[in-house]
């Protein structure tokens, strides 16, 4: 996507690690499909509760094309034999629909609905009709983000869904809260930030966390009526834009961010206002960061430099055993990913890094991981699916 990078500022009291080349490269074959559109976003459709099968359906959004689209794909027939005896390994298109403007972000609201953020400032809810494999618009907020009447609409840069709520942020520094059944916003914070908001994630039930173009994280508690953040965190030194954020799925105080200079930062929002550690990672903008949803000692990042990295911190957990946690009157064995001290917060952590792309070329704009399956999309107008790469 966009080009350019800047140098990282220093920071006292931080655990900072130098740039590392990945320790090993993944040699497994990646299933690819050329889609004739630059792919800005890839997202797995969530699995139903207690589902045993791997994910099969994912959505993509495009950018910088004459006509952008939201598309639904399936990899359900991977490994099946076609009539001529060859394996049909390509993701296949189920349906698509035109999208006005670049797809800036995309999240599934539930198994049937997906929300897309547009560079035009609009936010659209699409419904996937699985009986006849079509997409339709079920709700659209046309001017969700705008500068002012004289300067027109502002791109909507990020969304996060917690059904029925949809939180959106934009270049206008505005935060909106929508629900899919209402035409008007449930709540709007007009001047949430004086700089561009780049991404948003849900922290707790009533809290969201935003990152902006001057290296700040802000926590917003929607139980409060005011328009001020409840906490502010920042990278020290130069104000490096933060492009992405993700929250640890089981330890909600742990947050990962990616910045314009390729730096991966780990934060503990319970303590201090600077990151716990800065990890020199990619050579250019870090576009997305995702904890594995069920194995969060594993983390994934992708970048403008054409690389996609798998970070494995589980080796830092002693003998990979469960930890004994005593709270109140109950004693519970927690899996390693929920151990009292996360692998991401340990001193002198051991992290194994795998480069999942052997020959980096154009930007890897987006990734998503679910179960043992990874999907990612690039400026090379291709989508890639890797199944069973992760146990």
UniProtKB/TrEMBL annotation:
Q: Which PROSITE patterns match?
A: WD_REPEATS_1 (PS00678), WD_REPEATS_2 (PS50082)
Start and stop residues of the WD repeats: 235-277, 279-321
Q: Which UniProt keywords apply?
A: Nucleus, Repeat, WD repeat
Comp. bias intervals (Gly residues): 1-13
Q: Which Pfam families match?
A: WD40
Residue ranges of region Disordered? 1-26
- Biased region (Basic and acidic residues) positions are 14-26
Q: Where in the cell is it found?
A: Nucleus
- GO cellular component terms attached to this protein's record: cytosol; kinetochore; nuclear pore outer ring; nuclear speck
Against PANTHER family, the record matches this protein to: NUCLEOPORIN NUP43
Query: What is this protein's record name?
Result: Nucleoporin 43
The species this protein was found in: Anolis carolinensis
Q: Which InterPro entries match?
A: WD40/YVTN_repeat-like_dom_sf, WD40_repeat_CS, WD40_repeat_dom_sf, WD40_rpt
Classification via SUPFAM superfamilies: WD40 repeat-like
């Amino acid at each position: 996507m966009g080009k350019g990078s800047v140098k990282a500022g220093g920071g006292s009291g931080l655990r900072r690690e130098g740039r590392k080349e990945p320790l090993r490269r993944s040699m497994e074959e990646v299933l690819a499909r050329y889609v004739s559109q630059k792919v800005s976003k890839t997202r797995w459709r969530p699995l139903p509760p207690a589902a045993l099968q791997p994910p099969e359906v994912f959505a993509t959004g495009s950018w910088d094309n004459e006509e952008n689209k939201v598309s639904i794909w399936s990899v359900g027939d991977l490994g099946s034999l076609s009539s001529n005896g060859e394996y049909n390994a390509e993701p296949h298109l189920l349906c698509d629909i035109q999208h006005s403007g670049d797809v800036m972000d995309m999240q599934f609201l539930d198994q049937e609905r997906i929300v897309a953020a547009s560079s035009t400032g609009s936010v659209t809810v699409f419904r996937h009709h699985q009986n006849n494999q079509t997409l339709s618009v079920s709700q659209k907020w046309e001017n969700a983000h705008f500068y002012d009447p004289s300067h027109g609409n502002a791109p909507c840069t990020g969304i996060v869904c917690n059904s029925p709520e949809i939180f959106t942020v934009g270049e206008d520094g505005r935060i909106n809260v929508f629900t899919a059944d209402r035409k008007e916003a449930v709540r709007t914070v007009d001047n949430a930030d004086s700089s561009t908001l780049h991404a948003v994630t849900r922290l707790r039930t009533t809290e969201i966390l935003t990152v902006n173009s001057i290296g700040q994280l802000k926590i917003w508690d929607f139980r409060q009526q005011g328009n001020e953040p409840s906490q502010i965190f920042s990278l020290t030194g130069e104000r490096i834009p933060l492009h992405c954020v993700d929250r640890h799925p089981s330890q909600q105080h742990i947050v990962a961010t990616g910045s314009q200079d390729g730096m991966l930062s780990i934060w503990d929002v319970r303590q201090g206002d600077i990151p716990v550690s800065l990890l020199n990672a990619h050579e250019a903008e870090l576009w997305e960061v995702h904890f594995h949803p069920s194995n969060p000692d594993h983390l994934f990042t992708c970048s403008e430099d054409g690389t996609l990295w798998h970070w494995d911190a589980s080796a830092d957990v002693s003998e990979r055993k469960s930890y004994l946690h005593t709270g109140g009157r109950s004693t519970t064995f927690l899996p390693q990913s929920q151990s009292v001290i996360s692998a991401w917060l340990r001193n002198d952590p051991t992290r194994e890094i795998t480069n999942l792309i052997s020959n980096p070329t154009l930007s890897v704009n987006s990734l998503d991981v679910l179960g043992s399956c990874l999907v990612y999309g690039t400026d090379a107008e291709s989508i890639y699916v890797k199944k069973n790469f992760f146990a």
